[in-house]
Amino acid sequence: MNTELIGVLFIFLLSLGLAWPLGRHMVKVFKGEKVWSDFMSPLEKWVFKIAGVDPRQNLDWKENMKALVVINIGFFILAFLFLVLQSLHPFWNPNGFENWEPTLAFNTAVSFTTNTNLQHYSGESGASYFTQLLVFCWLQFVSAGTGIAACALLFQGLVNRSSAGLGNFFNLLVKSCTRILLPLSVLLAIILVFNGTPANFEGLQKVKTLEGETQMVAAGPAAPMVAIKQMGTNGGGFFGPNSTHPFENPNYLTNIAENVAILLIPMALVFAFGFYTGRKKLALVFISVMSVLFVSFTAISVVQEFAGNPNFTNLGLSDPTNMEGKEVRFGPAASSLWGVSTTSTSNGSVNSMHDSHTPLSGGIFLLDMFINAIYGGVGVGFINFFVFVIVAVFIAGLMIGRTPEFMGKKIEAREVKIAALIVILHPFLILAGTALSSYLAAKDATLFAEWIHNPGYHGLSEMLYEFTSASANNGSGFEGLNDDTPFWNILNGLVMLLGRFLPIIGPLAIVGSLAIKKTVPESAGSLKLETPAFGAVLLSVILIVAALAFFPVMALGPIAEFFSF
After folding, report:
1. In a designed cystine with 115, which of 96, 143, 499, 554 is the match (CB 3.0 to 4.6 A)?
2. DSSP alpha helices (H): ranges in 400-521?
3. What b/e string do you get for 463-476 counting C-beta neighbours within 10 Å, with b at 16 or more?
4. Cα–Cα distance between 509 and 9 in angstroms, integer?
5. DSSP string of 240-308?
6. Burial of 367 (0-12, 13-18, 19+ CB in 10 A)
7. Is residue 467 within 8 Å of residue 433, measured between CB atoms?
8. Whole-number Å distance between alpha carbons of 436 and 12
9. Residue 314 has what pLDDT?
């Protein structure tokens, strides 16, 4: 147990340590300063020339948002067409996989375009190598790049002094892919390949098992897709079991590398905020608030998994540790850390089955996604956190009897209204979807039998988890739910779209408003943000919002299941 806990601590501290210099590098990329990756410049110029884009054009928030939405619509259309016409692709389909069913293609195209990577399919049995690489892997780059670029636009809006221009989304998107995501993904892919993750284009291989039976084993170009799925907080696995599959996660070294990759860029973007705006102390307050939540949630999950189910003890087992659904090479502590990491960052990959974790541990994974701002996904995690900051600044300003200010800009009614709507949107999508599916399942016994394999408290948790994962752009699942049906494919797809783009558009509308305001000089009465007091207010706001919105449904699901032991 002590060795496992040391491993957990090592992964967390290593991620924090690497995030600091990466954050500095990212700011140089955003600002166009000289960096070691300038050798990518000819490729970037070629892309801009082909696309007919002037990367030097300075756009306001509306023009940038138009660019973001339009290009992502294009990504979705291309992905959908490739999926529904998969059998017609002339290359890289050695297993002869057929065209996809339209609602599944819609859900999957939306899922990868929105950086959610919720998978209602199993890659090794339904997706050709062409689909895996030139649809899924490509979308994992550009969807992650979209989030990073949006975050860079937000940074620029915060430092502007009465200027509407936030930069150029196209320029930031391309450079986020070529100078941040690609180098890190290549490095991780090399580590994976040297440890046994396949990277080939062979078809199914016939092998003889230890029992003497023959079995068809899938391989393929897994390493490059696994690398970007972790670096870009995508989470979509090459194989159905994701990183529980030994080809995706061969040993403890790859487990460390992948877990660090999950946390690295989200943490780095918090530090990047400090470097970009010159408010390093404020960035430390933000990372401290996030880390308090992250460490607390990890500790709760670890304790729950080591305690296990009391019924195990009643059966006479000497070790009640909950190893169901866990990887015996890694242990429950590493599984808990990965579970909290993947739900805190909207990554969605798994190295254990979340459905097999104890009720409170599963509840922690849900709470991570309810908050959706503990490090968060690449770019969008900090954007979601920024909304909580605006609400906390407004409340704190009222508490001291002053007009709320953030970084020298007054927070007025328009900004607060937008922030409030974005805060409300997330629970609305989750709770409305869960309520509708629960009603339909209770009303129609056929639907109930088709969807739910675990009736009762856990069945509700599975439906709740599905909508939470979709709205949080996470992509993980409890997997006890039969979700590959037209109802779940279409409704989840709509939730993913709304849960992805509105929380990007709203905060950038806020910074677009703040960018054109004159800076208000700080005075003795100004709200001091770089203090433990503001950190405590911010932490309280996050927890209170999550509790008010989600405690009732948590009481009907994970909490009720815990007390039913």
Report:
1. 143
2. 413-443, 445-451, 457-471, 486-515
3. bbbbbbbbbbbbbb
4. 38
5. TTGGGSTTTS-SHHHHHHHHHHHHHHHHHHHHHHHHHHT-HHHHHHHHHHHHHHHHHHHHHHHHHHHH-
6. buried
7. yes
8. 39
9. 65
Contacts of 315 (CB under 8 A, 6+ apart): none
| β-pairing verdict for 405-406 and 409-410 | antiparallel
CB 451 within 8 A of CB 485: yes
Residue 533 · residue 392 · CB < 8 Å = no
Amino acid at 407: M
Q: How many residues does the chain have?
A: 565
CB 496 within 8 A of CB 116: yes
Which amino acid type is present at position 345?
T
Q: Give me the residue spans of the domains in the chain.
A: 2-563
User: Is residue 70 exposed (0-12), middle (13-18) or buried (19+ Cβ within 10 Å)?
Assistant: exposed
Residues in Cβ contact with 38 at an 8 Å cutoff, skipping those fewer than 6 apart: none
Task: Give the helix ranges, DSSP H, for 32-159.
Answer: 41-51, 61-84, 102-113, 123-126, 129-131, 138-159
Query: Rounded to an integer, what distance in angstroms lies between the CA atom of residue 130 and that of residue 127?
Result: 8
Asked if 152 and 383 count as a contact pair (C-beta separation under 8 A), the reply is: no
The answer to whether residues 397 and 432 touch, using CB atoms and an 8 Å cutoff, is no
Say what the alpha-carbon torsion angle 399, 405, 410, 412 is, to the nearest 10 degrees.
-40
> What residues form DSSP beta bridges with 167?
59
**Successive 10-residue mean pLDDT values, the chain, 565 residues:** 84 96 96 90 92 90 95 95 87 82 95 92 84 90 95 92 88 95 95 91 73 74 92 88 88 94 96 95 95 95 85 64 80 92 92 88 94 90 93 86 82 91 95 94 85 85 93 87 90 95 94 86 74 92 91 92 83
Give the separation between CA 99 and CA 82, rounded to whole angstroms. Answer: 9
| Count of beta carbons in the 10 Å neighbourhood of residue 217 | 12
